[in-house]
Structure formats: C-alpha cells, structure tokens
Amino acid sequence: MGEQGGGVAVDAEVAAENEVLARAGPFVDSLHHGSSAAEDQRPVTDSRLKPGGTIGDRQVILERRLVGDGVSNRESGTAEPIRQRAVGEEHGILAVHPRKVDQVGHRRSVPRAREPQCRSCSWPTRTSARYAPSMPTPIATGTPVFSHPPVSGRLVAAEGPDDVLDLLAEGAEGVIVLVRDAGATFLSPIFPELAGVICTAGTPASHVGIVSREFQVPCVMGMVFDGDVPPNHTEVVLDCTSSPAILALAVEHAATDHHGITDDDGDGDDGDGDGDQRPRPMAVGFGRVSRPPVPPELLIRSGPALSAGDRLREADRLVRYHEPITRQLTFERTSYHSQLIPVTPYILVACAETFYRYPDMMRTIDAAMPAEEIVRAGRHPGSRINAVHLWSIANFWLTGRKVITTMDPSLDDPEAAYTVLDFWERGAAAFRGNDGTLQAWDADDVLTPYGPDVIDALLAGVVPVADDTLRGRIKRFNATLRNYLFLLYFDTRIGTGDTGPYLLPDGRVLLVRDFYQLGQSEYWWSDVAADLPYQHLVAALVLDGVDAHVTDFGSTVTDPEDYLDRLVGFGLFTTDGGGADRTLHRVDLSGLDAMADAINAVNARHYRNVVNMTRDERIRCGAYVYFGFLKPFAEVAGVADQMDWSVPVRTEGFLYDVLSAMDGDLLPALDPDARYYEPLVPGP
Fold first, then answer.
1. Which of 32, 198, 352, 673 gives a 20 to 30 Å CA spacing to 520?
2. Is 75 helix (H, G, I), strand (E, B) or coil?
3. What is the pLDDT of residue 434?
C-alpha cells in the first residue's frame, strides 16, 4: 500500500512538473539554446519517466519537495538515496541535459561534455585512460584545489544530508568523502574532521574549495572515475601533490608516489643520491590570471543623462561593461549546485524579484540619500556596504532581466536599467574613491577602500605570530567562521568579506577580513545563534612573502595558496557597540578556541534545522538572503523600514513554480563565446 501510494505521488508530481515546464516553453527553450536538435531528443533513462521520453518533451528530472536534495523523504517515511533516483535500474548513463564538468587550469574553466556514469551509482566515470606503468593505478583523477601531500583514508560517498549527519554522529576522522556538488554547506558540520574531499563537479574557486583551503583539507574538483566507484569504506590514497590529482587504492599506492618515483623506505627519496626526492609540484588550484582591461570608453560617463536617448546609451554602456566581467567571474567561481540547498532555484527567484522591484526601491533610496553618499558613509569595517553587495545589486538585476525577458522580451525596460546601473555606478565609483575604476577587476583584483586611519587602528592591535601553536589556533578559528557563515547565509559568500592587499612599508601585506552578522539578525533562522558573543568581527592578517589579490566577490586569491602558513601578525576586533562610526574594539585572542567551539555547536544545530526544512522553505530562505543585498544601502539612507523585503512577491504563483523547479542540472553549461548579458542597443 505504501509503495503503491508513493508511486502514485511520484507520478502525479512528475506530471505536474512536466506541465509547468511545458507552459514555460520559451524560457526552457532558451536554457537549451546551446544544444543541437539531436541532443534535445536523446532518450531520458530515469526510471520515473515514461520509456522513450525525451528532453525535447521537457520530461526532465526536477528535484521537487517530494525527492528533495538527497534528503530522505521524511513525509512518506521512505529513504531513497540519490543514486537510486538518479539512474534507471538497467541504465549506466543518465541522458539528461548535460551538466558540463569543469576542468580548471589557472582559474579558467573549459566546459566539456558530461562523462559517462558508473553503472552501480551516478558518479562520473571514464573508461579509456592511460597512465605510466610506474604510477600506482589511479581509479580517478581531477583538479586539486591546492597542493597537499598524499593522505590516506576511507572513501565514503555522501549522497544526502542524512549521510553527513551519520558521519557527524559516528565521527568523520579518516574519511575521504565523495560528493557530487560544489556547495560548501553540504559538508559543513563535518568539514574539520575530514581527511579529504572529492567533488565530481565545480572548480577550485567553488565554495567547497574555499572552505577546504581554509581547513587545509585536501580537495579535488571535477573528479572522474576510471570505472565503477569502489564500495564505501574502501581504503584509498588521495594525492594532491600536483595536477591532476589522483585517487588510488591504498594497497596499490604502496611506496610508489604520484610521479612514478620508487621509494622503498618511505622517506620520500628515490635513492639515486641526488637528494631531489620528487619533482617540483605544478601550480594547481587557485593560480590566478591577470584581468584583461575593460575598454576605456565603458568606464567614462558621457555627462548628465537628461533625455531618454541619453539614458538608453548610458544604460547600454554599463550593460556592456558588466557583460565580459561577469561572464568570466561566473566561469571561475562555481557550479550552482548543493546537495543540501537548492541554490539555482533560489537565485532565479531572487533575481526575478530584483528585476521587478529594485528599480522603484532604488529610486526611493536615492531620493533619501544619493548612492555615492551612502557608500562613502559605509567605507569602514563592519559595514555590509562592500564589494560583493555592490557587485550583486547590479548583476542580480541584470540576471533577472536575462531570465524575465527571455520569457517576454517586451518587459525589457531601458529606464529601469538606467535607474539600477546608474545607482550602482555612482556607488561603485565612490567605494573606490573615484580613482577612475569601478570594481576590483579594473585594478587587477586590488580592493582597498579603507583609509590610513582605519589601517593604522588595525595595525595598532596586531600581535606577532611567531609560533605554530598560535598560528594553528588562528587557522582553526578562521576556517570555522568561514564554514559557519556559508551555511548561515545559505551557501552565499556575504558572511565574509575581504579587502586588500594593503602594502606595508616593510614589504609585507595586510588583508582585512570582515565577518558579518554572526549572531541573531533579521534572518528568522538565525535565532539558533542568539547566544554567540559577537555580531561582527574584523580580522587583520599580516602576511610575509604572499602575493594576494581580492576579487569583487570579496574572496582572496594568494600565491602561495597556504597563505596562513606565512601569517606573521594577527589582530581581532569587533565593531559591536561602536556607534555609527563602527569604532574598533580589540578582542582577546585567548578566547579563540572557545569561540570556535561555540560556533561549531551552533553550526551543527543549524545544519539539522536546514535538513528538516522542506525544499520550498530552503528556496525561500536563500531567495530572502539574495534579495536583501540592497538592504544595507536602504538602512544607511534611513528608509529600510519603509520597504517590503519579503520574497516571493512579484513571482508568487506560476512564475515561482517555474523558477523554483529549475535545478542546476536543467541549465546548460556556459558558452565562453556567447554573450552573458544582451545589450540594450543592438550591435557588436
């Protein structure tokens, strides 16, 4: 009876989802614009769909509330792992629209076709690969996030949050975990214990890559298996010494390292007397490339935009300015997947809401206080008027424009575009001190909004870091906060914001790292953190021998990657109780361990709370975070309480149903040669 009822429920939900997609014809067609007719007619082999169904029929897999994001179906009481839902019983390859697996070299992803999948599960595999006979036989290869010596452990595939909770209860020490998606939140409560992380998607700049680097847990992205995935608890060795990283069975790894050097006694020396031990590792992971300059004419305002024609030209200029930058940043950053949180659906919902609502909200804010004055007032530690919020208020609207005008081109509104992008440009220029640039991109990823008074105050509170014990405590504290804030903010980066590098007279560099809203705030789910002692923290990190750059996402890219191994000075501050000017107060470093322990406890409770949410609740939480990126500007202007920040509002109903159904697997990989945003004025 239970099985029959469950089957009927699944059939009914799939039928409803197919009807929603069929009604959304133009939008779905646009998402598949890069595929050929032959690709669109490949058979869908998922067992929930009727035999012979096709992508062209829009019979695609939608992880709605019934099947969740790998969570057991708590409403029906059934426990159905992703691997059984994702592939049919008799099929080894899932023929849905391909999610391109990114291969990354120096932060540029090159999309390629989806790999075949294991016949016993849904992990990518490769059936034809050749390796030098002297190497251990790799069972999988991928792109390392950073260079790390080989580690051994038990391979455990985490299909859903229940698996993570089991590891949390049992202990995850010695586990090399295998995950499908690149969100940092899925592994959040067990990250500090893991021996290694293997992800079959994403790039080194993905959220999971950022957190793994902070914890110094070796991590590989885009891992592809050569054949079937070994059973859980198989002993393996993960070698991230160079690129590509390899995964090998522990029994075959023996005393042969990644480079084919025989090491009989295990001391790392090949015994030929030259003392070289092993070749110098290749650059891997977060290696960066210089930013190509934006055409100068796109950075220059033509003067007051008095007429409709002037406003159209100015808006078009700014769309063209953002287009190549956002396209490249999107290639570099991540796949929009998480096995815990439906990231793609909430982004689409939030961006559609910004398209409809931000123009009027910005007019109200600007009338109360001009954008440039708001931003000047917010250039201090503890303020959420920062690079990532500025980038987002423009690009979320542009993404919403992309989504909505695909369905109805008549809704494209040059006046609304001008309102949003002009507000952004004036604020962005003020944030950078009107130095002729608008973003970190324009300055080769340098982001230094704080003046000498702030830097002097921070340096006055810095203490030397001369021993590994203190350095280790700082590393743990930093990684714990970053991990926690990714989860608190539903797999977004806004909980942490870096600025720098600030060059010091002795040749060292200072990075300033803000940790925002650690405790209870306007986010209803944050009541779990009501007892944390601080709301805002600011860390000053003095680094020696590190080349650092900070992106418009507020993320730091360093060479070498293990930047905290070169930490020579550290200070921790809070702006709590500092008044309107956010006065910095020193925080005693003796409390680092206790704070990290308290945050880990809150993080574990919050993780369980998120797991117990429905899929729709998670989408609404994430969309609320995204839509609220404009709120700090309204708060400074004194009009935030006059505005409705709830979501969904304009998308409630059919449009919400369509957008919330669009999980990442339904979206095509980015075409590096295609326009990311269409201009307002036709032409090259």
1. 352
2. coil
3. 93
pLDDT tens-digit map of 531-583: 999 999 999 999 999 999 999 988 898 998 889 999 999 999 999 986 665 78
List Cβ<8 Å contacts ≥24 apart for 155-158: 155/198, 155/230, 155/232, 155/233, 155/234, 155/235, 155/236, 155/247, 156/232, 156/233, 157/83, 157/121, 157/123, 157/229, 157/232, 158/186, 158/187, 158/339
> Is the model's pLDDT at 43 over the cut of 90?
no
- List the one residue out of 144, 274, 159, 304 whose CA is nearest residue 208: 144
What average pLDDT does the segment 4-28 reach? Answer: 48
Kindly indicate the confidence band of residue 493, based on its pLDDT and cuts at 50, 70 and 90.
Answer: confident
The pLDDT tens digits for 639-654 are 999 999 999 999 999 9
> Torsions phi, psi of 572, nearest 5?
-125, 135
Which domain range does residue 469 map to? Answer: 452-610
CA 229 to chain CA centroid, Å, is 26
The identity of residue 373, as a single letter, is: E
Nearby residues of 441 by Cβ (< 8 Å), 6 or more positions away: 291, 294, 325, 329, 551, 552
Same domain for 239 and 179?
Answer: yes
Does 598 fall in a domain?
yes
Residue 239, phi-psi category: left (phi > 0), alpha (psi -120 to 50), beta (remainder):
beta
Looking at the structure, tell me whether residues 8 and 73 fall in a common domain. yes
The verdict on residue 509 lying in a domain is: yes
Sign for the CA dihedral angle at 6, 12, 15, 20 comes to negative
Could you tell me if 334 and 203 are in contact, meaning their C-beta atoms sit under 8 angstroms apart? yes
Strands 108-110 and 103-105: antiparallel
Q: Which of 160, 154, 209 has the alpha carbon at shortest distance from 180?
A: 160
Q: Which of 488, 493, 486 is nearest to 529 (CA)?
A: 488
CATH of the domain at 157: 3.50.30.10
Q: Which amino acid is at 500?
A: G
Asked if residue 523 belongs to a domain, the reply is yes
Identity (one letter) of the amino acid at 139? I
Which of these three, 59, 86, 113, is where a domain ends? 86
Report the pLDDT value the prediction gives residue 580, as an integer from 0 to 100: 60
Residues with Cβ within 8 Å of 455's Cβ and at least 6 positions away in sequence, in order, are: 502, 510
DSSP-derived letter for residue 191 is G
- β partners of residue 514: 497, 538
Predicted model pTM: 0.75
Give the count of alpha carbons within 13 A of 533, CB side only.
Answer: 11
CA distances to 165, 275, 280, 395, 491 from 179, in Å: 14, 38, 29, 29, 16
pLDDT single digits (tens) 389-440? 999 999 999 999 999 999 999 999 999 999 999 999 999 999 999 999 999 9
Question: Does residue 70 lie in a domain region?
Answer: yes
Q: What is the largest CA-CA distance in the chain?
A: 79
Q: What is the mean pLDDT of residues 317-331?
A: 89
- Assess whether 590 and 606 both reside in one domain: yes
Do 552 and 522 reside in the same domain of the chain? yes
**Same domain for 464 and 580?**
yes
Q: Judge whether 141 and 246 are in contact, CB under 8 Å.
A: yes
Indicate whether 460 and 550 sit together in one domain. Answer: yes
Sequence-separated (6 or more) residues with CB below 8 Å from residue 654: 20, 23
Residue where one domain finishes, among candidates 184, 218, 253: 253
Q: Are 160 and 70 within 8 A, CB to CB?
A: yes
Same domain, 334 and 408: yes
Name the domain count of the chain. 4
